[in-house]
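Write out this protein's structure.
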Amino acid sequence: MAGRRPSLRSGSRARPTDGPTGPRTVSIWPFLVGFLVLAGIGLAGVLLGYSTQSSNRQRLDVPQTTAGTTPEEAPGATVPVTLPGGASAPNGVSAVAVDGDVTTFSYPVPEALRSAPVDDAVLPATAVPTPDGGSLRVSVGCLRSAEEALARISVTEDPTAVTVLVVGVVPRAGVPCEPVTEPRSAELPLRGAVGARPVVVVEVGTPIAATPG
């Protein structure tokens, strides 16, 4: 029949042409993963910082080793005085110096005597070789004062003689020598045996240079 319109089936619906128009569901997993990654990085940084501090603290806690002094170098210790060959110097000698043929044995002079008016002078002395000829036995007497002190003994060894010079520090206004004064003595080694050479002692009154120091 002309002009007949097609009938619509009961209950049929038109197919939607657009996507869903309702609210969309968003997954939380990407956020959770990101949070866990950031938390892991932060924890690693904290642990690394603690490890570094702990390492530094351990390094600081290690006992520090410092160079100590040997007994000879310790304050107040006595350093042994030796001869040029390495042997020990005679008792009472504070220094040994060698200058050409001359060996000088120095003795300590009290500071109180140094601070007073004094003269350096040749002291009366005798010197004889030991039986083996390798040393000299020197006896030193009193010049003017019982307060004078032995300063040095110089021994010159040349091919013709062995010469001994005994020098003391003598106060200008000191107590006079005792009537009987026990001589000071010293046994000094020689660099070579005396042999046939004479031993000469420098006489009292001979001009000398001042004692160093």
